[in-house]
Amino acid sequence: MKIIDSHCHIDNERYKESAEEIAEKSLKQGVKSMINVGYDLNSSRNAIKLSDKIPQLYAAVGIHPHDAKGASGGYLNQLCEMMKNNKVVAIGEIGLDYHYNFSTPEVQKKVFKEQLKLAYELKSPFIIHQREAVEDTLDIIKKFPTPPKGAVFHCFSGSVELAKELIKMGYYISLGGPVTFKNAKKPKKVAQEIDLEHLLVETDCPYLTPHPFRGKINYPYYVKYVVEEIANIKKESPENVAFQTLKNTEKLFGI
């Protein structure tokens, strides 16, 4: 069973192991490829450096809403330059996060819109992070046409109704570790009701570790627990879930 982790951060400072060691172990445990996602300019550059070293690793570049306040003049030009590397497959992660408000909502919205505009100009897929900001996120993305190369709402935690609305707008829905949590009713309902052709799987490692390792550090190879839970919910084989989500991810990101 070959699986793809569509969203990870294997160079995160929480790891004692090197990114190369994590990638190597993941590949040995059935992960075909991984997308390492940036959250600011430095992490985006590092994601590219790692993807150049590791053939099965791809990069996404962007400014996370937490880091929007640090998006200084010229950051869009730098992202545009990074996008020229053929291992960069998306702009992301971008969006709105009102849980902590490390950046003010006004700054988050400004930087989100600017990066969305860049993604449309470059005809690039993009990865959206949304937390406790559904209304404003929808308000912004509805002002843009259907994503030209597709896009994904990563680690989706919303309702089935919202998922269906986003799919109609041209978005994929990505499920991560929370779908394995006992009381995670919304992700389980999404897994049950949304067709596989619209789903991706991810770890968002080192965060959101799936059961049975919840509370510990997460790794790309734990994505198999996400696949197995979706398969269990849908009464499908894990192999079929892995195959279809891998196909969806490769189609979205052109890999």
TrEMBL record:
The keyword Signal does not apply. Signal peptide: none annotated. Its EC number is 3.1.-.-. It holds the Pfam family TatD_DNase. One of its GO terms (cellular component) is cytosol. A divalent metal cation 1 binds at H7, H9, E93, D204. InterPro entries: DNase_TatD-rel_CS, Metal_Hydrolase, TatD-like, TatD/YcfH-like. It comes from the Bacteria. A divalent metal cation 2 binds at H129, H154. PROSITE patterns: TATD_1, TATD_3. GO terms for molecular function: DNA nuclease activity; hydrolase activity, acting on ester bonds; metal ion binding. Coiled coil: none annotated. Keywords: Hydrolase, Metal-binding. This is TatD family hydrolase. It comes from Proteinivorax tanatarense.
